[in-house]
């Protein structure tokens, strides 16, 4: 065990978070140590800190599933990365890889090398939602995985695909990836403030999901048949809306957990389910429901070996994928920055932005 220590923002018990000192380990085989510059705060961080989800009593738990920074050291067997490289990464499991700390140890397969001039702040918005969108579309929904640049239209190029809640950060990546992969009939639902941006990302149709005639507009854009749906909000209310437009033999991918009511961020007394209860399911048996657990994406060997190490660096180098807008917390102490960011996410005060915390200066 290393005798060195560094600062980390962690949950130390249910409902309690603070900056603590943790050991600074060295990278093992296939691992990379990153000097963290920025990290994101996402709803899952609030579920872990507020309700102890995914913890199993093993405290403290460092928070932050996205990170960007500079490679400080590499373990044996790591190819394509070296000390000094700018990177972003996704923490799949374990506190040592989380982003809200000064040094993180991640698997090299979850790490993407950045162009030399790429913003570390912008890069911290990318990993979880890029992975979620790609995994959902091209594994869970079983659309044909693209090889960029796309030279031949995919089999479902002219099939309407609905991205519900596309103004969410995950939805923005889903729209981009579908358009880049050659899908021409992407239908997005979002509040009007996001419509022009989603069209610039490649949505063919954008519908206000608060409009009374939303189902009719979706079906009109789809041509009365809607086979594929990605629900980026995954609440009871959004699933009910989707059930009124999806084809009887359609496929619906839900980003888990599903929340009670109509909001993506769950409060203290709101139920969440990793499997949709039978009595809450608004779909007929003929509709296929797929629950998306992004943390499991590396079970797909192709995605494990290619998505972050090879595909994302190429898309960033060619500047053909756009990061999310940033809501930055960079003032005060690390404790202040992290706590304020967590509060904003917990209270649902985010709209189409990624909440980013500055961890350290590079």
UniProtKB/TrEMBL annotation:
Enoyl reductase (ER) domain segment(s): 15-357
Top-level taxon: Eukaryota
GO MF annotation list: oxidoreductase activity, acting on NAD(P)H
CDD domains: enoyl_reductase_like
Organism this protein belongs to: Suillus luteus UH-Slu-Lm8-n1
Protein name: Enoyl reductase (ER) domain-containing protein
